């Protein structure tokens, strides 16, 4: 492994997600394992510009593998979007002797890291942390699996009340641009319909599908709706539309909101975070930079940050078909 990197900074940026703490722990412990110093940077790029750094050793990350959120806090920074802000950030890192950055966040955070790397030839590696799973170059982002488990647990509970009252529930889940959470959790929770931004089912077909469900003997229904679904303006409009057109239905809406982001990470996310942290630090020590760590076919891979930022994560068409068959 290369000796040119003596101190690595680790930070979390953008929206938090379960598994970020496990990734911080992994980065810190991998640094300790390879006798490389590590500093935690608070509040993402804001903290870089403020020099808000803290030396971290293996013991400083005890008892966090199971915690949601991020002990380093996260932030969104306007100033880092400016060349002046990034110049200050570079100076602060130099002053603190930090030679490389591990950025745990979403595609916006990687965009910032990419620009910073290009401007200052400063080594940056990304770890994808977002519940939306909307990043190109990895089958799973940190927090996605935990969010799915949270959503499935909530829908199981909603189903109890739906079937007790013969009700139709629209359950809105996160996913402004992508429907990964809706599609996976919808299948896992046995939803009758799943509405995602990638596929516009159309209001007419939704009504037909609900009528078919009723005819087939179903007494209650769950429709999972991704935030960014294009079929109606929002989930409450959908409720009004269905109640107006299908008066046999008693419709309720449940917006799951921020609870999807919180909670202890699943075992899958803890293992993934641990693997990604090791891969990120060891890749930096091997001289790699401007790449993102990802999971593909069960293996750790690297994708250039530029591709990770520009590429689009695709919805799994096989899952769409499975969901259609399951709602028969
Ligand atoms: P989430 O999944 O929650 O959206 P994200 O990492 O995509 O996470 P953003 O708010 O898009 O979140 O980005 C986080 C931060 O990265 C921004 O606040 C900003 O400081 C930095 N950043 C994003 N885009 C750029 C850019 N083009 N140039 C410089 N910095 C950027």
From TrEMBL:
<dbReference type="GO" id="GO:0042802">
    <property type="term" value="F:identical protein binding"/>
</dbReference>
<keyword id="KW-0324">Glycolysis</keyword>
<keyword id="KW-0808">Transferase</keyword>
<dbReference type="GO" id="GO:0005524">
    <property type="term" value="F:ATP binding"/>
</dbReference>
<feature type="binding site" description="in other chain">
    <location>
        <begin position="130"/>
        <end position="132"/>
    </location>
    <ligand>
        <name>substrate</name>
    </ligand>
</feature>
<feature type="binding site" description="in other chain">
    <location>
        <position position="159"/>
    </location>
    <ligand>
        <name>ADP</name>
    </ligand>
</feature>
<feature type="domain" description="Phosphofructokinase">
    <location>
        <begin position="7"/>
        <end position="283"/>
    </location>
</feature>
<feature type="binding site">
    <location>
        <begin position="106"/>
        <end position="109"/>
    </location>
    <ligand>
        <name>ATP</name>
    </ligand>
</feature>
<comment type="pathway">
    <text>Carbohydrate degradation; glycolysis; D-glyceraldehyde 3-phosphate and glycerone phosphate from D-glucose: step 3/4.</text>
</comment>
<dbReference type="InterPro" id="IPR022953">
    <property type="entry name" value="ATP_PFK"/>
</dbReference>
<dbReference type="GO" id="GO:0030388">
    <property type="term" value="P:fructose 1,6-bisphosphate metabolic process"/>
</dbReference>
<feature type="binding site" description="in other chain">
    <location>
        <begin position="218"/>
        <end position="220"/>
    </location>
    <ligand>
        <name>ADP</name>
    </ligand>
</feature>
<keyword id="KW-0963">Cytoplasm</keyword>
<dbReference type="GO" id="GO:0046872">
    <property type="term" value="F:metal ion binding"/>
</dbReference>
<dbReference type="GO" id="GO:0070095">
    <property type="term" value="F:fructose-6-phosphate binding"/>
</dbReference>
<dbReference type="GO" id="GO:0061621">
    <property type="term" value="P:canonical glycolysis"/>
</dbReference>
<dbReference type="GO" id="GO:0005945">
    <property type="term" value="C:6-phosphofructokinase complex"/>
</dbReference>
<feature type="binding site">
    <location>
        <position position="167"/>
    </location>
    <ligand>
        <name>substrate</name>
    </ligand>
</feature>
<keyword id="KW-0479">Metal-binding</keyword>
<comment type="function">
    <text>Catalyzes the phosphorylation of D-fructose 6-phosphate to fructose 1,6-bisphosphate by ATP, the first committing step of glycolysis.</text>
</comment>
<dbReference type="InterPro" id="IPR000023">
    <property type="entry name" value="Phosphofructokinase_dom"/>
</dbReference>
<feature type="binding site">
    <location>
        <begin position="76"/>
        <end position="77"/>
    </location>
    <ligand>
        <name>ATP</name>
    </ligand>
</feature>
<dbReference type="InterPro" id="IPR015912">
    <property type="entry name" value="Phosphofructokinase_CS"/>
</dbReference>
<feature type="binding site" description="in other chain">
    <location>
        <begin position="258"/>
        <end position="261"/>
    </location>
    <ligand>
        <name>substrate</name>
    </ligand>
</feature>
<feature type="binding site" description="in other chain">
    <location>
        <begin position="190"/>
        <end position="192"/>
    </location>
    <ligand>
        <name>ADP</name>
    </ligand>
</feature>
<dbReference type="GO" id="GO:0016208">
    <property type="term" value="F:AMP binding"/>
</dbReference>
<feature type="binding site" description="in other chain">
    <location>
        <position position="227"/>
    </location>
    <ligand>
        <name>substrate</name>
    </ligand>
</feature>
<dbReference type="InterPro" id="IPR012003">
    <property type="entry name" value="ATP_PFK_prok-type"/>
</dbReference>
<dbReference type="InterPro" id="IPR012828">
    <property type="entry name" value="PFKA_ATP_prok"/>
</dbReference>
<dbReference type="GO" id="GO:0048029">
    <property type="term" value="F:monosaccharide binding"/>
</dbReference>
<feature type="binding site">
    <location>
        <begin position="25"/>
        <end position="29"/>
    </location>
    <ligand>
        <name>ADP</name>
    </ligand>
</feature>
<comment type="subunit">
    <text>Homotetramer.</text>
</comment>
<feature type="binding site">
    <location>
        <position position="15"/>
    </location>
    <ligand>
        <name>ATP</name>
    </ligand>
</feature>
<dbReference type="Pfam" id="PF00365">
    <property type="entry name" value="PFK"/>
</dbReference>
<keyword id="KW-0021">Allosteric enzyme</keyword>
<feature type="active site" description="Proton acceptor">
    <location>
        <position position="132"/>
    </location>
</feature>
<keyword id="KW-0067">ATP-binding</keyword>
<protein>
    <recommendedName>
        <fullName>ATP-dependent 6-phosphofructokinase</fullName>
        <ecNumber>2.7.1.11</ecNumber>
    </recommendedName>
</protein>
<feature type="binding site">
    <location>
        <position position="252"/>
    </location>
    <ligand>
        <name>substrate</name>
    </ligand>
</feature>
<feature type="binding site" description="in other chain">
    <location>
        <begin position="174"/>
        <end position="176"/>
    </location>
    <ligand>
        <name>substrate</name>
    </ligand>
</feature>
<keyword id="KW-0547">Nucleotide-binding</keyword>
<dbReference type="GO" id="GO:0006002">
    <property type="term" value="P:fructose 6-phosphate metabolic process"/>
</dbReference>
């Amino acid at each position: 492994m290369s000796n040119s990197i003596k101190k690595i900074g680790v930070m979390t940026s953008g929206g938090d997600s379960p598994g970020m703490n496990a990734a911080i722990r992994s980065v810190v412990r991998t640094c300790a394992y390879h006798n490389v110093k590590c500093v935690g940077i608070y509040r993402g790029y804001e903290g870089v510009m403020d020099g808000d750094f803290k030396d971290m050793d293996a013991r400083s990350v005890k008892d966090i593998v199971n915690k949601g959120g991020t002990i380093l806090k996260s932030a969104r920074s306007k100033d880092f979007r400016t060349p002046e802000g990034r110049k200050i950030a570079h100076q602060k890192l130099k002053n603190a002797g930090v030679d490389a950055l591990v950025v745990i966040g979403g595609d916006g955070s990687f965009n910032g890291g990419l620009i910073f790397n290009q401007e200052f030839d400063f080594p940056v590696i990304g770890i994808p942390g977002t519940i939306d799973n909307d990043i190109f170059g990895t089958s799973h982002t940190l927090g996605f699996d935990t969010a799915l488990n949270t959503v499935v647990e909530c829908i199981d509970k909603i189903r109890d009340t739906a079937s007790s009252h013969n009700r139709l529930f629209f359950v809105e889940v996160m996913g402004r641009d992508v429907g990964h959470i809706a599609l996976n959790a919808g299948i896992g929770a046995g939803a009758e319909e799943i509405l995602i931004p990638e596929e516009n089912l159309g209001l007419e077909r939704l009504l037909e599908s609900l009528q078919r469900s009723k005819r087939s003997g179903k007494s209650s229904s769950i429709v999972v709706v991704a935030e960014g679904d294009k079929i109606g303006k929002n989930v409450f409009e959908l409720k009004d539309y269905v109640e107006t057109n299908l008066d046999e239905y008693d419709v309720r809406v449940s917006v799951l909101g921020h609870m999807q982001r919180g909670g202890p990470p699943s075992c899958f996310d803890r293992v993934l975070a641990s693997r990604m942290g090791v891969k990120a630090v060891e890749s930096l020590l091997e001289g790699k930079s401007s790449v993102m760590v990802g999971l593909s076919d069960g293996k750790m891979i690297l994708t250039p940050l530029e591709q990770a930022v520009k590429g689009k994560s695709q919805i799994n068409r096989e899952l769409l078909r499975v969901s259609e068959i399951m709602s028969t």
